[in-house]
């Protein structure tokens, strides 16, 4: 979401800040519990707004977690599920020089999947996949 503020002298772009990671949200809760810091101090430490801190602590109070467990996922649906990503990670650990087209073929053969296209970086296996897009 991008809003623009125009005036006679300048144009300023107001851009929505990126969301906080789950780890940082959990730390905010711990800081509040252990140190009883104010919302302002928590916001300064986490680099976010006081409203974000209020939401994190409200989710913790209501749901027992730092995020809303009922929030729907945004963005396009994933082509690969967790098991597919784990399989790809296994293939890459076994053969780090494997080509993307070979991974796609093995997904179709071994996992019985009809997914024809593998999007680079779609799996969050904890490391960059560094996939090659085919032989040259």
TrEMBL record:
Where on the tree of life does the source sit, at the highest rank?
Eukaryota
Q: Which InterPro entries does the record match to this protein?
A: Homeodomain-like_sf, WH-like_DNA-bd_sf
Protein's name in the database: Predicted protein
Q: Which organism is it from?
A: Laccaria bicolor (strain S238N-H82 / ATCC MYA-4686) (Bicoloured deceiver)
